[in-house]
Amino acid sequence: MENMPALAQTAALTGADIAELRAGFPYFAANDQRDEPAAYLDSAATSQRPARVLDAERRFLETANAAVHRGTSGAVGEATAAFEGARAAVARFVGAATPEQIVWAENATDALNLVALGIGEANAGLGVAGSERYRLEPGDEILVTEAEHHANLIPWQRLAAKTGAALKYIPAREDGTWTLDDAREALTDRTRIFAFGHVSNVTGLVAPVAELVELARAAGAITVLDACQSVPHIPVDFGALGVDFAAFSGHKMLGPNGIGVLYGRAEMLDALPPSRTGGSAITKVTMESALFMPAPQRFEPGTQPVSQVVGLCAAVAYLEDIGMERVAAREHELVERLVAGIAETPGLRLLGPADTTQRVALAAVSVDGVHAHDVGQYLDDQGVLVRVGHHCAQPLHRALGITSSTRASVHVTTTEDEVDRFLDALRGAQRYFGAEVSA
Ligand SMILES: Cc1ncc(COP(=O)(O)O)c(C=O)c1O
After folding, report:
1. Are residues 169 and 300 both part of a single domain?
2. Are residues 103 and 38 in the same domain?
3. Considering the entire predicted model, what is its pTM?
């Protein structure tokens, strides 16, 4: 293990382990030396990067930078080997059977758009061999949930508008959750696509993906999983889950910005037309037409973000060296602490499940009598960095009867002290704004 503290591979992470991990993140190392260190509780928005990731990016740029898959030089070969090696590493990390099932995208938003736009192309007569499977007729249904991030909603709204399919949704319950039974009720024999989040970025709710995929398959629907908030925090095996497509972002999993991943089952990717076209993704071009390469290159036109891919590969190796089971176990402890602290504070409304076995990596609250932006301002003054607002989930907030909330999110480097500072600051905000509620 390069630049990696010697953590025991099986035992739970200890406080000393976390301190050692933090020391390997330049952001935390600098922060923790300050007189008034900040509490970073915003990894669900974007995570910090260990030196190992930053070094991998820098080393690549300083010593091996070249455009991949173009030209014949040794440098191109070296860069291409790093680029394709990263694809294989990411494939292994998420349970893809082959590297070809991994498509590089800009981020999860882009990856989800690749699917929705590609299906749109198939319906506009711009398909590739096998694209008939993506045919949508008026009256067909695209199913989402009311809890989706806008990235897994708006692309489907637009696909529905283009094709005449109906966009249906599973309504959120009073606490923002939804269940397998709700999905069973909503799926019909007209459902062609079922797009849902693995872990909600507002409620932290974990969806029972394998069971949902089984239901969707029985109804004849394609499944698209927004795995943006699951892959960074829990072991995920897309092959075992059986999803047709899944999307996630590098910058939420200790990796770089500007790189996301679309996973697809081989036969689904092979039949999906490209929605962005240009150089490198083709086999033959005439003045009238173009023939496209097989997946994944078909979806990767133009000069590629190679240093970001190299950085993502380093992030995957870093997480693997800790072990995703241990990452998940550590974060679960932190979430239990967060939820317990919220539950014992009158005047705080926890969004999502109180049962922490159904929750991953985050907790959002609404503070009775105080607007989330006021809470955010107060927390910021206390050096507690969280996200306030609708978190790109306006429909869910509307369903919950609020416009915004305050979200704390953790990663493996988060400390108990940071969680406690968040809870203390929430109570401080209640007092400051005269919204304290006695038990
Ligand atoms: C659940 C979920 N889906 C999708 C996204 C979009 O991710 P990105 O902005 O990296 O494309 C986010 C980011 O906050 C998210 O939390």
Report:
1. yes
2. no
3. 0.96
